Structures are given as C-alpha cells and as structure tokens.
Amino acid sequence: MSQIKRILVTGGAGFLGSHLCERLCDQGHDIICLDNFFTSQKANVDHLLDRHNFELIRHDITLPIWLEVDEIYNLACPAAPGHYQYNPIKTMKTSVMGAINMLGMAKRCRAKILQASTSEIYGDPEVHPQPESYKGSVNTLGPRACYDEGKRAAETLFADYHRLHGVDVRIVRIFNTYGPRMHPYDGRVVSNFIRQALANQPITIYGEGDQTRSFCYRDDLVEAIIRMMNNEEGFIGPVNIGNPGEFTIKQLAELVIELSGSSSQIQYGPAPQDDPQRRQPDITIARERLGWEPTVELREGLKQTIDWFKTIDMSHYRAPTPNY
Ligand code: NAD
Ligand code: UDP
After folding, report:
1. For 25-38, b where at least 16 C-beta lie within 10 A, e where not — what string?
2. How many CA atoms lie within 13 Å of 105's alpha carbon, on the beta-carbon side?
C-alpha cells in the first residue's frame, strides 16, 4: 500500500459501514468508526476491536466533533423505511445537520468526503431505468420524505461546499443493497423474507408484489464506493451504484422460499404509502468513470445471505424500532 490514511466512517457499525471498515482496515489504513448505534450494535464490529488500526467512537453526527482525518465516508443515517420513519424529524436532522458537521470537518482538515446518497432521491420515478440526470419525483409531504428530502438536501450541501469552499466531495446514489450482517429486524424486504422463510412463517408481501427493486450484493457495493473515493479524475458524481438486475417483489419472495427450502406461503397485505413502483439503476456512468459493475447475481448473493442468517441467534438482536 502506498500511503496510510486516517479514515472516518460515520455509521461505521451499520450493515454497510461495518464491511467498509473491515475492507479499509485490511488495506492497512487507520480507521475511526463513529456510530450512535441507533440501528446497529457493537457486535457488527466486535471482530475489529482488537485491531491496532481500528477505533470505535459512540457519537451522534447531529452534534459537532473534532477529529483529524484524511477521508470521511458519511454513511450515518437510518436506511430502512421502518427505521427512518420511526423519528422522521431526527432522520432529517441526521442527514442535514450531520452533513453540515462532516462537511465542516472535511473543510477544516482538507479531507475528501463521500456521501452515501440513495436511489430514494428519485422518489417514485417516472423515468425507467433511472440515470443520474433524472431529477426525481418525491412527495415532500409523505412518510418517506424525511429520508428522501434529507438525502436530497445533503447532496445540495455537498455540491455547495464543493463550489463555495473547494471541498473534495464524492456523491454515490446507492440502490437496494443486501447481504450478511443486515439487521434481521430492519424490516427491509430481503431480511424480512429470509427471516420469515427460515421460520416457515408467512412471507409478507405489501401490495400486489409487482413493484420492482434491483438488488446489489454488499461486496460489490463496498468495492464501488472505495473506487469512487479513490478516483483521481476530479469526478464528484453523483454516480448510481446498484445491480441493474430488476425483480418483482413476488419473484424475490419465490426465490427466497426456493433457496431456503421453506414451506412458507405468501401473504398479501396493504401497500405502504408512496411505495416506489419500479426501481432500476442506469449504471453507465459507474461503468465508464469507475470501471465498475456488479459481479454477484441475486441468486448467489441470496444464498450467502441465507447461510449467514442460519448462523445467527436472533435473540442476540434487539429490534431498533417496532416497525419490522
Ligand atoms: P444501517 O442502518 O445498517 O447503518 C446506518 C448506521 O448509521 C447505523 O449503524 C446507525 O446506528 C448509524 N446512525 C444512524 N443515525 C446516526 C447518527 N445520528 N449519528 C451516528 N450514527 C448514526 O444502514 P445501511 O444499509 O448500512 O446504510 C448505510 C448508509 O447507506 C445510509 O446512509 C443509507 O442511507 C445508505 N444507503 C443504503 C442502502 C441499502 O440498501 N443498504 C441504499 C441506499 C442508501
Ligand atoms: N416489502 C414487502 N414485504 C416486506 C418488506 C418490504 O413486500 O416484508 C416491499 C416494500 O413495500 C417495497 C419493497 O419490498 O415495495 C422494498 O422494501 P424495502 O423496505 O426493503 O426498501 P425500499 O426500497 O422500499 O426502501
């Protein structure tokens, strides 16, 4: 490795953050993992605590903090709908005040900073698949707005700190990502279906099950965001990161049942308000600018995720909110 960097990962104990910390530790960098453990627990980073190049800080990014760093990956934010809707005002504060605090640190330290944005900034899209140039269709008043609008405002702050102060920013728009170490009670579709299938309980489809999502395996995702941070061409994004393979939620349910050898039946319930009907990333820019594309097919990634779910003891997990 050419140079050891001091890297801050906010939300570093979460599903994606903990994998990112692991990868960056393996590369020999000095990692500061910052988290308030709202939707995660220390168990996710237990295996890193003994490493000489890993440090864990309990902190909330809505409050200022003084650290000396070379790079910041800003991942802190509840990501599952049941989590971000639990306290929507706090969700907005985390996105907006958190971005301001982290951008201020980046400005002071002359650090590079990457924002984990989301496909949710496209809302319930009228354009399909979604390219980065699509401006989105978000209901500003709906239950998802705290997250969607918070992430949109964070992107605006990143662009403005770049224009006004020359901060070296990166913006990645992450599409649905899954894999081992997802919180089993996060209420997201992959974790719900696997948990239900392994217990031979009904698989809960919200709505008709014909809404679509495109699922990216976590290792592919982590590879992409590290490439984006390390990109030397002054490319700040935004860039879509996701797997273009598009599946209906019913297809996902059937695949999970098959792969887990479950006897679960499908049970249909009401569709949530403002549930996006179709979602698929256009990853032309990621291919061209980062030389990146996903390598793990849904079937393979689900097998690995199901295998991991089989190894965990659910009683060791505390549901972050009642919404799962
Ligand atoms: P996660 O809930 O597992 O991780 C988020 C982490 O942030 C948790 O550890 C949580 O405790 C922490 N956190 C929340 N609020 C905080 C605060 N105020 N201060 C400090 N820490 C705080 O979710 P994830 O799937 O790992 O998502 C990570 C990031 O990626 C999020 O910003 C999310 O919006 C973004 N993202 C994820 C997906 C996905 O499909 N996984 C898709 C789009 C965007
Ligand atoms: N969903 C479902 N059953 C569940 C959980 C989710 O049918 O038990 C649906 C949800 O309505 C949405 C899709 O699966 O259409 C993806 O939901 P998730 O919460 O994982 O993420 P989103 O992409 O909506 O943020």
Report:
1. beeebbbbbbbbeb
2. 26
321 Rama class: left (phi>0) / alpha (psi -120 to 50) / beta: beta
Pick the ligand that lies closest to the CA of residue 16.
1
Report d(CA 125, CA 120) in Å as an integer.
9
Both tokens of residue 220? 């592919």
Domains and CATH numbers, the chain: 6-177+217-241 (3.40.50.720), 178-213+244-279+297-316 (3.90.25.10)
**Ligand 1 lined by 37 (C-beta under 6 Å):** yes
Q: Which of 73, 84, 122, 147 is catalytic?
A: 147
Helix or strand holding residue 170 (H, E) = strand 169-174
Interatomic CA distance for residues 103 and 72, integer angstroms: 9
Pairwise CA distance, residues 255 & 267, whole Å: 15
What SS3 class is residue 73?
strand
Q: What is the pLDDT of residue 323?
A: 75
HSE on the CB side for 123, CA within 13 Å?
A: 21
Burial class (CB in 10 A: 0-12, 13-18, 19+), 71: buried
Give the binding-site residues of ligand 2, using a 6 Å CB cut-off: 80-81, 176, 188-189, 192, 204-206, 211, 213, 249, 272, 275
| 157 in Cβ contact with 95 (< 8 Å) | no
What tens digit of pLDDT does each residue of 253-297 get?
Answer: 999 999 999 999 999 999 999 999 999 999 999 999 999 999 999
